[in-house]
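WARN no homologs supplied; continuing
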Amino acid sequence: MSTTDIGVAVIGAGMAGKAHAAAYRNAPSIYQSTLPNVRLVSIADAYEPLAEASARRFGYQRHDTSWQAVAAADDIDVVSVVVANHLHREIVEGLLAAGKHVLCEKPLSDSIADARAMAGAADDASSLARIGLTFRRAPGLAYIRRLLDDGALGDVLHFSSRYWTDYAADSKVGISWRFKGPAGSGALADVGSHVSYLAEFFGGPVAEVGGGRFSTVIPQRPKPLGAVAGHGNLAVSDELDDVENDDYATFNIGFESGAAGTVEVSRVAAGHANGLTIEVFGSKGAARWDQARPSEIQLYLSEGPVEQRGYRTVALGNPHPYIAGGMPIDVSGVGFGQNEGFLFQARAFLEEVAGIPEEESLPRNATFDEGVHNMLILDAVAQSAAQSGITVKVGS
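OK structure emitted
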């Protein structure tokens, strides 16, 4: 491994894998030039045509077809793991044993036992192990957090979020790993894992969940005729396979502070391609953010004459988190979206690997212990749903 520059690889060339690959390519070009030279070394995927195409597209030196090749490579220092959840443990533990710095996609794994084992491996490793909680870096959401920290919104009273997607709304979408696994490993793990960490980002620690309910509305799907990557649609056969997990999930939250919250997630919400919305209600005001309009927030402050109060639109720009120096044109009205979250995440990870002091860097990425905690919230939801919505304490 190099001591003068940083060699990067991405394992997984699907939808999120491409986001990681592009982020590493662009990370040195934002903010000040404090990073050492970043070398784009390899993109690995078991499906070689996809690995080869992604490496060529994003300017990586080569492609590989196994994680073992990445682990054994002396010219690779940093690795993003962006594959099916049930594959995370073996790959991450192998990379850490080889001394690589690892950034793992959420959720950390497909089981609490494997997630705890990964956290243990991270504690014992000489290298860094972090998990990407990308939406924490959305400038609008980071600004709402700043408003809470500054006291502008007062104490959080309640939190509301829905993450509606429609990538599986068509019953002809082919079966893949996303549709396999126990209750709670479907829409809840896929998009609900984002909402659960955002709930704590705004409301503080979650003490308990209740009202858990899962629904699988499309019980069978056709088998695809080719390799599945991301949410892409492929030609399918006439042969059907069973869907094992949840198309839809909902639950409510009890925060340690006494505040409450509600969450609803779906992968079959027709017409909502990527519909994440967040609302935070405080004792002095409220704020909401919609992924469909990510470069603005709606802000309400309980001040001034009552007849003049109301939500107003705040266009995000240079004064707001991540934007100044993080965008080529960093002024209000230009616009940005989810891709930039991966960019800021990659930059933060490279800064930490390079040893740049925290006070001179973007906020650090989350630890594997935080990844385990996120899974414990989801596990409590699954327990609630399995017992007709009873209230379940979040484990530790």
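The longest helix spans residues 368-386.
OK
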